[in-house]
Amino acid sequence: MPLIRRAGLDDTEQIAANHVRSWQAAYAHALPSDFLAALDPADWALRRREMLARRIPPAEVFVAEADGRVIGHAAVGRFRDEDNIAQDGIGEVMAIYVAPEHWSTGAGLALMQTSVKHLVEQGLTEIRLWVIADNPRARGFYERFGFLLDGNSRMQPIGSGYEHLPPIKHVRYTLYR
């Protein structure tokens, strides 16, 4: 079982590298291959460093570590609506990714347990997350954990430089604690 701990600034490069590799493996069937191949861990590390530096409670980033290496991460905080306004009493799992070679090892479960516990300790008893609709592996994981589809969906652009492609459908799950 991996060690779960709060992320530090020195974890950003490993978090970013795992995040990119996770996207490349998990979304290979759903996103353009040239988009996935062009993902740059260095760019993602800059964003992660900024996010870690401005933690505002209950925002937190946790990492799963095995053999001294970061193998996954989860980012949590207050749920924000379409206008980026934090919602009282509602938390969000903003990201949860594990390096593909560590899938099905318990790392994701340990990260989710820690994330949910942290949010509940902050008084957030309704916890939401968004997931690409065509991501059966992640959706199955969330459902086994107890998250339920809540009927909300949205279309999101793939990313910068890919505006010519149709947006990707995301669905929302909610967990009540």
From TrEMBL:
Q: Which UniProt keywords apply?
A: Acyltransferase, Transferase
**CDD domains, per database record:** NAT_SF
Q: Which Pfam families match?
A: Acetyltransf_1
Keyword Acyltransferase carried by entry: yes
State a single Gene Ontology molecular function: acyltransferase activity, transferring groups other than amino-acyl groups
> Which InterPro entries does this UniProt record tie to the protein?
Acyl_CoA_acyltransferase, Bact_Acetyltransf, GNAT_dom
Q: Which residues are in the N-acetyltransferase domain?
A: 2-172
Q: Which domain of life is it from?
A: Bacteria
This protein's name = N-acetyltransferase
Report the source organism.
Rhizocola hellebori
- Upper classification of the organism: Bacteria, Bacillati, Actinomycetota, Actinomycetes, Micromonosporales
